[in-house]
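A note from the maintainers: we've had questions about how concatenated examples are separated. There is no special marker in the raw files; a new sequence line simply starts the next protein. For clarity in this README we add a label.
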Amino acid sequence: MTTRNWKIHPVIATAIAINAGILGLALAWSGDAVRLGRLLTEDGMVEWMQFLCFAVISVLLGYAAIDRFRRTGRVSLAVLGLAGLSLLVALAAGEEISWFQRVLGVDSPEFFRQNNKQSETNLHNLALGGASLHKVVLLKLIFIMGILHNLVLPLLARTRPALKRFIESLGLYLPPLSASLVYLLLVLLSHLLIKHERQGELGEMFGAVHYLSTVFAAYYLGLGYGGPKVIDGQADGRHASALFSLSMAFLLFVGWLLGAGYLRGAAL
């Protein structure tokens, strides 16, 4: 299967522009603790953008699993892998906003009030010693998996095509090295240049946007991916790419509206 050049694709370019723009905004506000805090705080734009991206990724993966099943007529490892990823990302989306707890105005059960570092109804902030599960375990795991998936495996796959085919047989994919390097660079810059107790939220958002674009590009357009793609035909792919790029920009707008709305409501 022939593939196109990832470097010039508008979906990837849009994701990079969004992440670079948010980093630029954080840098511009780095001297204003109030503005920077509003950007990175709980229920701020960055956190809502993470939720929106995770939610869309989950839907994309779920639909790709259904499409793969319809094409093959059997429950293969690839179908199970896609379905499992869809469920995992859906769980991440729910965890990000504490399962709509603050949206619905629901109080945390007693267990979470006693054992959650933020007294929220979620698992990733469960107390583990003097810190939370998120800081002690999950952040380290995310870092290792991020380097492995975005740097180590793509580099190895360049000289070992069988490795790439094996990964894709499990329903997984490898992001393009060019997009991954930009993503990792932006995460590094956010840690070096932004000084805030919640600066890690930027890197998490960069990852959510990065994966939103590369999941769509791989499974739906077949870019850099050897398995069957959801969208057939170059013309359909071009139209879908343009619409998806616009949709990503719209998600950023919605995230800004939600963050502004919830922060204003909390101030009242």
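[label: protein 2]
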Amino acid sequence: MYSVKSLLMSGILLVSLGLSGCGGITDDLAPSGEDKRPDVEAGTIGTQVGQQSPDWSLFDTLGNSRGLYDELASSTGVVLYFTMWCPICETHMQDMRTEVIPNFPTVKFFLVDYVSGTITNSRHVQEDSNYTDIETLVDTKQEVLDLYNATMGTTVVINSAGYIVEMNEDYKDGVKLTETLQALP
């Protein structure tokens, strides 16, 4: 039989080996909080904060083509939230629905479904999840997802001039999103 002490030592050894073999993972255990994205030149076209977003077009769940700059023409900004319809996304979307969206009636909010595969499937998930009150764009080829280097929970804010402002990151609690939207002209 193995003693508790030998099992504990074996466990510590395995964890240590695992961490040492992951090259740099220990940085994730105590993150600095500093933004390590590369600096961008203001006014350039790109997908980082401070850059003008390239135009794109996706279909919504009703089959309508929706282009970024068409949406910006009639709003003070656009918010994209990339969703997989998972429990974490549900929490974020519900918080956004109740705590953020009602306070910004001139901003267009879009869920971006990049996992359902078709407009029909996305519409079914949208209806089943009870999110028909928030417009959903269907990114069947993950083009916009890749454009913004997004993933589940990524939130992008684009002002009426087409610039990405202060937010291209994962949604947390709505505080930064609210602050960013309050600063829109």
